[in-house]
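INTERNAL AUDIT FORM
Audit reference: QA-55
Scope: verify that the stored structure record matches its stored sequence.
Auditor: D.O.
Record contents follow.
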Amino acid sequence: MFDFFGFLIYLISLCLLFISVFLINYKLNKYIAIVILLGIIFIASLRGTAGIDTKQYIFRFENINSFSDITLYEPIIPFLMWIVKSLGGSFPVFSLIYGIILIILYCYIFSNFKNSIYFGISIFPVIFLDSLFNGIRIGLAYPLIILYVTSSSFYYFLLSFLSHVSSLIGVIFLKRKIIYLFLFLFIILILSGSSILNIVPDRYINKYYQYKNLKPRFSYAGISDSIALIITLIVYFRVSGVRGKKMIKNSTIVIIFIIIYWFFLVRNFVFLLRVTRLIIIIIFAVIAKRNRKLDKISVLLSFIFGLFYSANFLRQIIASSSYAERGFLPLFPLDWDIL
């Protein structure tokens, strides 16, 4: 049965997230924005078992009983779970603390990089909500990868990688000396007689085979993020000063290329759905790093697309309400103790 109340919470949250970005980015009232964000993460922390991946994270939380239970594979979230559980907290407390970390990171991004507004009013509201309910590991990696690109700090890259392995795509932004160091160590390992499979942890190998032949559930999967990639590149061109015939030429090439990319790759391979979103975020981070005067047309284009992107997210919520345990829809059943 469709939960209209839960759907309404998502709709209101998306609207408030758009408002929050404007409040922070345009330095209107950061504190009101923070209160709004805190309210959203508080509601998300009371979601019970709602969210497709929530049960999986609850299972992990309940099975972390000592420091030795933290794996080397993407250890940041398990480490945070272990700290919360060691202090006597429950999964909702972990969700609340995790949400506060996200707020701190995103507030820093929107406060310090004016051109982050394009990201903030296009895909951020959806990504933020999705990070709270389903993609906890990748959700923490998103702001870290933005900070990595904008600051060129290796430590942000390392943290994003330790949060989610797909952040490895950001390796192209590492300084050459660090890349050469990685290559040197890799060659030494190979020459020492170690095979690649022995170097790579089993969890990574298992994930590779798990995603290798996994197909999206629908033939139209990935369309929204593929369109988002087009919009992101168009904004990138405009912010870079591209205009007139060159803009038309570049946009046409991008549209054709991404249509081919979606038709032959994205809609056939699940892992590329996540890779595409990461590429979008990295491009937005590159735009934010430039910190040039805002382009009004790009702001309008980003905002209009953001509304359609959010509408598609709400459509997914409606579709997922048929999943077991109410899919994405929050608050029911409300069976958690706060502490």
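Auditor finding: record pair retrieved intact. The chain has 16 helices and no strands.
Action required: none
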